[in-house]
Amino acid sequence: MEKTNSSPTSDKKWFELFSNKARVLYPHSDPAHDYLHIQRVVSTAKNLCQAEHGNWEVVMPAAFFHDYINVPKGDPRRPYASQLSAEAAIEYLKSVGYPDKHFEAIRHAIEAHSYSANIKPETLEAKIVQDADRLDSLGAIGIARCFATSSLMSRPFYAEEDPWAESRTLDDKSYGIDHFFQNLFKLVDHLNTETAKKEGEHRIAFIKTYLEQIKREI
Question: Which residues of the chain form CATH 1.20.58.1910?
């Protein structure tokens, strides 16, 4: 891993610049992928970076711009969204004079973060960005994001006749709760860093408690 020579003043300058850019890039029309999502991913990535001794000069811009191009779920371009985002992010970083020695590492971190892209993270920094993004799909925030996406997709929260898929195949394109079982519960097994795995297990436990309450209510 390349050591960083950044200073707190330099970090603050870039952080503020990227934060202002992100406010423009990520509108609130999609609450699951808005500026607040970016804030959380950046914050989590910073914590992981400190715990795992990653290079913040790579992690910070990659975390801010991992969704630079937001392709909606169901769009045939979805598997390529992270590559499109990486290209757009690098062009932006060039335009503001960010050190080009980090570009390839940033590009890889953005490309590898996406679940649908199926690109294995090869660097610690890419693993950190991927973990930070995936952790935001879990826990209380993960629940909120899941149901926000359900609204955008016009899918009901659960199947009327069989909410828990006891006699049908899971289908998260049709039902919100199915997404927890079909996808989100598996994420913890695909987290890269020990710090993220520990947090992921805690967040999964919370979702399971929440689902037990839903069972009582329906």
Answer: 139-217
At 120-144, the pLDDT tens digits run 999 999 999 999 999 999 999 999 9
- In whole angstroms, what is the distance from residue 168 CA to residue 148 CA? 24
Indicate the pTM of the whole model.
0.89
CATH 3.40.50.1240: does it fit domain 8-126? no
Domain with CATH 1.10.3210.50 in the chain: 8-126
**The CATH number of domain 139-217 is 3.30.450.180:** no
Q: Where does residue 69 rank: exposed (0-12), middle (13-18), buried (19+ CB within 10 A)?
A: middle
Q: How many CA atoms lie within 13 A of 102 on its CB side?
A: 25
Tokens read off for 30:
């999609």
pLDDT of residue 3: 42
Q: Quick one: how far is CA 59 from the chain centroid?
A: 13
Q: Give the DSSP letter string of the chain.
A: -PPP---HHHHHHHHHHHHHHHHHHS-TTSGGGSHHHHHHHHHHHHHHHHHHT--HHHHHHHHHTTTSS-PPTT-TTGGGHHHHHHHHHHHHHHHTT--GGGHHHHHHHHHHH-TTTT----SHHHHHHHHHHHHTTSHHHHHHHHHHHHHHHT--SS-SS-TT-SSS---TTT-TTHHIIIIIHHHGGG--SHHHHHHHHHHHHHHHHHHHHHHHH-
Q: How far apart are CA 30 and CA 72, in angstroms?
A: 9
